[in-house]
Amino acid sequence: METLQSLHFHWSTAILVFGVLVLAGIVVFSLWTWRRTQFARGVGLVELLRVAIAAAIVVVLAQPEWVETVPPPDHPQIVVLTDESNSMDTEDVTAEEGRPPVSRRQWMEQLKKDEPFWSALREQYEIVFEPFAGAPGGKERDGSDYAAALRSVLDRETTVRGVILVGDGDWNAGTPPLETAARLAMRDIPIFAIATGQETPLPDLAIRDFSVPAVTVEERTLRIPFVIESTIGRDVQTIARLKVTDGETATMAVRVPAMGRFEGAFTWTPASTGEFKMTLTIPVVRSEVSAENNEVTVPVRVQQEAIQVLLIEATARWEYRYLRNAFERDPGVDVHALLFHPGLQKTGGGRGYLKSFPATRERLAKYDVVFVGDVGVDQLSPEDCRRLKGLVEQQASGLVLMPGLAGRLPSLAGTELGELFPVELDSSNPRGEGSARLQPYALTDFGRKSLLTKLTDDEMENVELWERLPGFTWHAGVLRALPGSETLVVHGNASNAYGRIPLIVTRPFGHGKVLFMATDGAWRWRRGVEDRYHYRFWSQVARWMAYQRNMARGERMRLFYSPDHPRQGTTVVFHANVMDAAGEPLEKGEIVLRIVDPSGKTETVRMTPERGDWGLFSGSYQARSAGEHQLKLTCRENGGTIETTMFVQSLDRERPGRPARLDVLEELAKATRGKMLSLGDARQVRELVNRLPELEPITKRIRIWSHPLVVLVVVGLLGVFWVCRKMVGQI
Q1: What is the value of pTM for the model shown?
Q2: Which CATH number covers residue 240?
Q3: 440: closest CA among 471, 466, 415, 463?
Q4: Do 486 and 540 share a structural domain?
Q5: Which domain holds residue 175?
Q6: Is the Cα dihedral 194, 198, 200, 205 positive or negative?
Q7: pLDDT by residue (tens digit) across 464-490?
Q8: Is there a contact between 451 and 488 (Cβ–Cβ < 8 Å)?
Q9: How far does CA 447 lie from the centroid of its chain?
């Protein structure tokens, strides 16, 4: 049967009568006009054009349409979508009673090879098999993009009568498939889903998280949290073992609850610099379905530490004195101080003191962490505040705000530095609240989990320690923590209309971090234990703030990225701070980052400048492969080069043993007026497909009367008509 084409008009009696009368009137008028000019040839042609235009308009009023009727194909297609993701390796399909279960993939392959089953359908339909996983027909199996597979059906030029979907419904990539199923329903294409697998997970013990930082420093204790997850119906007691390539080994007895998870942490103190690999293993448990997820290896780079710290204070109060002395005794910290001495009309002091605030951006840019004490607008100018804001926002430095009894710091909230404050201050009480007795601290839920407030390695002991720490007699006038902030510590007794008064609050700002310390009594933590808790807290704060900024650095460049623990499939955003040959921040330049993935494939990222005047460049990269990536950053303008590595953790979205999501398959089938079938009823799909009604011919209509080209032709003819009238002297 061939395609039929025809021209249709939608005449009505009123339109027909009106059109004939109008056309007749125009013909009479044109003849009269032509006669008045004694039948001049030019006028006759113009009047003929008038009649032609009128006739065209009358025809358009009849709404002409070009209709094309396409007959259905003799053998419409049935598309069989087969899930090829890794979760299909789960062995939970009982093909025959009394025999051991086979994998979902094995059962699916048997179905695909069942020629008698498909031959009955081929009499009426063309059967097309299309495997899918991360993308239709793709080789990547760590993901199931059901929506993309269904979209491939919509995009086909040939007519599709139905879809047979064979899989476990475990979609975890792309958009929700139900949206695409709704579009299939509009085209009357049903989905017949054949569900494979069970809705209960198979017994397995797996390492789900192993958070090793990309970079750490020599002779500093590193805390390495990990998570073990169990889908076994009983408590499992086992041993977690951490092994480092330098020969150090640590073990921990763990008890994972039935169908639950265990969270723990190892500590490691690197004795030397270099590249190391850390391996976490747990023994394979009896009846466990997979041993591949019982071991994880992650690289870590140990480098020498050189944190640059700047302390800005008005008076040498106790907190400032002990903090400065502690940093000076730390070989990994280079500390400078700016002491204003209000009332003495001078700044500075002895060794390590600055006489004034760094006058240029390049001098300020060297500091990883800046502590701003009880100083105000009398000491820090608006330009100083603007530079501090840029240092945090674009140089990824840290800022610690430490108000004091004099109440000077709140005045900085009116400058550009106020945008960085993580708390709302009480403007009616700039000097804060005092007490005759020591007041206690209390950890929040965020504080219990934060590495900053971890003063002991045991979580419960750490909570009790904060409750019995020597308290404080003064705190700043704080109303509440602002949205986007995390409150780690609150007042143990006092509260206001917003709840407990925040004492230690953090927030990210730009590429850096901010911490607000509402008391100046942390120095009391030294009572009876010297620097044990006081310096551990401030040391953790300084290193937490400087960590990302010091991932990789050269003489004139610094490279950092987020997230610092990227997983496969995520987008990694790279940032580079670049100085020119003279030491000034580079505004424009050719900054190129070359990335070599574990397979040897090279990708080039051209870094673009961000707003601001701190020489910040950025670029992004899609981490498609897991493993160690080689990074090389180059700058043509200053000749600098930085080489480092980045480790991408595998996503493990499609691990065997995951339960099937039969509810997803059932929703897709219902949305398209199809049906979901269990393994035992899979044979019924042949009957359901054969019962489908025959496809109707497809009719395509082109509305000539409303087509833009017709409008242009009519308007063009009218223009020609008026020009011709002028040429023959009728105007």
Answers
A1: 0.64
A2: 2.60.40.10
A3: 471
A4: yes
A5: 77-201+656-690
A6: negative
A7: 999 889 999 999 999 999 999 999 999
A8: no
A9: 25
